[in-house]
Amino acid sequence: MNRRTPIATALLALFAAPAATLAQQAPAPAVTTAQATPAATTLQEVVVNGFASRDDFNAGKSSLGKLGEDLHDVPQSVTVVNKALMESQGVSSLADALRNVPGITIGGAEGGQIGNNINLNGFSARTDIYLDGFRDRGQYYRDTFALEQVEVLMGPSSMLFGRGSTGGVINQVSKKPSLKAATEVTGSVTTNGLVRATADYNTPTGDTSAFRISAMAQDGRPSTRDEMTVQDFGIAPSWRTGIGTSTEITLSALLQHNHDMPDYGFSNLNGHPTNVNRNTFYGFTDDRTNQDIAALNAGITHKFSPNLRLRNQTQFNYVETDARETAPNSVGTVGARGFTPLTTSTLPLDQLFVRLQSHDRKIRDYSIFNQTELTANFDTGSVKHTLLVGAEVGHDGYNNQNYFRNGTCNGQPLVTGTTSATVGYVACEPLVNPAYTASPASVPTSTGNLQGGSANTIAAYMNDSIEFSKQWKAVAGVRYDRYIASISNSINSTNSAGAPYFSTALANADQTVNFTSVRLGGIWQPTEAQSYYVSYGTSFNPSLEQLTGTVGQQSLDPEKNKSYEVGGKWDLMGGDLSLSSALFQITKDNARSQIDATTYALSGKIRVRGFRAGATGRITSKWQVFAGYTYLDGEIVNGIGAGTTGKVPTNTPKHTATAWTSYAFLPNWEIGGGAFYMSERFANNTNTVQVGSFVRWDGMLAYHQPKYDVRLNLFNIFDKKYYDALIQSDGGRSVPGTGRTAMLSFTYRM
After folding, report:
1. Are the beta carbons of 477 and 461 closer than 8 angstroms?
2. How many structural domains compose the chain?
């Protein structure tokens, strides 16, 4: 009975909202010509000045030319988190911005993966993060100082973006120069000791050109976990010329440096994260993650006529990471024979220890892509078309040099003859109140495996947005991708037989994938304020998509994904408030399934059925809201590994909800707050490690003036202990969220 309740609620919301909208859309009383004429002759232009629109949560438009600006004409769920919402909540990272999107969960660092690891609708989206429409595959922690908004497109979208996008895509939208001069400087400080400053300067450089530069620097502790520190800075310059003319050129860059303390969280015991103080940290004082990021973008748009436009854009991304990181690998006991790992125990926690594993590596991740798109508007009889024809070429490169530190526990080596010599078990320390010291001086760093990979992409696509009438529209698209990848490992199955970590690593492998993706949608818009749609989309995941691979995978066809969605979008209160809801199903039909150590087959199946609903905008001129809910019924229908059939995919909660609201009172004051809710979820696909549900409450109080704002943000007001990020490595690790924190910000505009 409980399993049906969310679906029943979804159906009720899906069909009840249009009725409310229709009631609001009742035609106004007719006005005669005689009545209208005097009014028409006395109307005068009215100019409204103020800063309310700058703080509007309802973005209403997409920046992606592939989608089209008007979200009513997009037969998929799209959530836009704009600058106003991020500022209201005190958001400074992409991960924090994405908490506003129910259905998204955060993954922790794992093995060779560093940076933002995102799950979207129950599927990994690590390689489905985009920057201005280009794949941003680099492994780094993304800031929001140079972003105007974040757009999340739900469901498989290979027709629009190529490989990946099983659960959807996340597109970061950079700030762009405009012809209006503006300068904004913000400084903030938190009770944890984090000091942050940002600046945003925009100036015209001519009648049709402008220059803009955004900058950021921060230093201190980002959470109540005492050992967590960041020391980051970045700049994002951009220049546009030809604004408002037939030919517009944009040049932009993002340059960022991160010097952060990595957080690998807690190991598990007795099916849950270890029940220790949330500020407990397992690692060493000389751990660090250094990252240098460069993204360079050049684009030109030429309008041959109002109905014909050509766009060409090139983007180069480069991320270099130098990491010395130590993670809790497992919990156990220590005796004369050293460390003995356990998954269950009735011993007091202060009698247990944690084995630490080194995750040291230098990663170089880069890509260069070019897109050319021609957009044409034309009619065939009474039917209107917006035809998009595009081509994409690109190259990805990846190198990951691993290092390891092998140490001892209670005088006994943690690496034995039956274990890989490069496993990197460095030390052990008490589970409760571990000492925070430097890595043992007696444990040297040794060179491990060098992973290498590269890929070339060639694609052509076409999408037609068809308007049969004002009420009936359709979308149809097709894309052909040719993906050619190669990988290598210096320590592999041919020279390290018997070593668990590398006996399945490929010495080298090549793969060529040819795939055709489709996108179909039908839209009914009975009024301008209502839009109902059905859609179908596909996507694919090559086995060498992340430029890594395992013996038995290199010859497999890509995994294939498909999505069905039906939903509605409504505008209320003259367009000030937007509502949306949808029912959907995403299926990975031929998921890679591990048969034994070196054998894989496309016999797995993962299915996620769900419902989502959202509300964005103003209820009154002073009261606005951003809220959403997602229900995910995820199931591994056919196993993708031992003991996974019938289980729930990793990090896929049934219920997630977010709500944020603000209210302006008195002449210049604003108060706001909201909650983030997530139901229980599992840290691995075998569902042996469970993390409980939580609700985190945040608040805000602000004082506004035309020239400046003062804002106080409160995070986790009730000091709730919860787990922010999950990752399935080491049996399932969990990273605690921050405790109660306050942040005071001051913004000055010139």
Report:
1. yes
2. 1
